[in-house]
Amino acid sequence: MRRAASLSLVRSLSHGHGLGYKLIPFGHRDSGDPASVRRPCAYDGAMAGDEQSAGPAGRRPRPLRSDAVANRERVLEAAVVAMKREGPSVPLATIAREANVGVGTLYRGYATREALFEALEIKALTKVRDLTESIVERESLTGIEAIREFLVRTVDHGSQLFLPYHGAPWIESDELAELGRGVRANISTLLHRGVVDGTIRDDIAPRDVIIFGSLMAQPLPSVRDWDVAARRQIDLYLRAIRP
């Protein structure tokens, strides 16, 4: 489960696309969920405070209320825990219950299972992009030191980088594509730094680092002391990419 989940990150970062998922439309009966779910309407935001208010014509929508933002964040956190435990087909009612929100609140934030999956991926890729940007800014690091920092931090934040299984069909997302391009560009910068300072071979591509980092981010259940084991694998990997 975890190993397959990490491959979702690889595909998004390597190809700059969103994920492919099995689409469960709004209102579709989901195992463990209510038999029917009311479709969203223009009154949902005003009634529940969980949607952006359209406001008068010509004005920008009002931002989400703080409690609505908190609800969405709790849903994402609960989804990660529940999907790790039961897989990506875990009933949405289970996620809502563990997030301590109503099923209706979950659907107002994420109208389909696909939307929830995409939100999880956006959250994960945003964290990876921000991480790589912060490392690029540390110009005192050599190329190989910078790549090691990225890989070690990926292990440290592995539980936050969980992504759901990908299935069919492809889902295109401009936001995911842009995040993926940003991550690849940052890693490319670090690799180029290593080539220039002589610490990294010139035939290593960003995709090589992304694949390895994705694998290290998801602990093997049969390996004790994963942090120690992962750091050993990282050091072995770094030896392999030196000139």
Structure description:
- The chain is mainly α.
- It has helices spanning 2-15, 44-48, 66-86, 92-99, 103-109, 113-136, 143-156, 174-197, 206-216, 226-241.
- It has 2 domains: 1-21 and 115-243, Orthogonal Bundle (Tetracycline Repressor, domain 2); 24-111, no CATH class.
- The chain contains 10 helices and no strands.
- The longest helix has 24 residues, at 113-136.
- The chain is elongated and about 55 Å long.
- Residues 1-7, 16-56 and 164-169 have low confidence and may be disordered.
Distance between the termini: 35 Å
- CATH level-4 homologous superfamily of the largest domain: Tetracycline Repressor, domain 2
Radius of gyration: 20 Å
Question: How large a portion of the residues is in β-strands, by DSSP E?
Answer: under 5%
Order of helices and strands: HHHHHHHHHH
The CATH architecture of the largest domain would be Orthogonal Bundle
CATH C-level category of the largest domain:
Mainly Alpha
Shape: elongated
Q: In which range does the helix fraction lie? A: 55-70%
- Total number of strands: 0
Unreliable stretches: 1-7, 16-56, 164-169
Protein name: TetR/AcrR family transcriptional regulator
Pfam families: TetR_N
GO molecular function, one term: transcription cis-regulatory region binding
Keywords: DNA-binding, Transcription, Transcription regulation
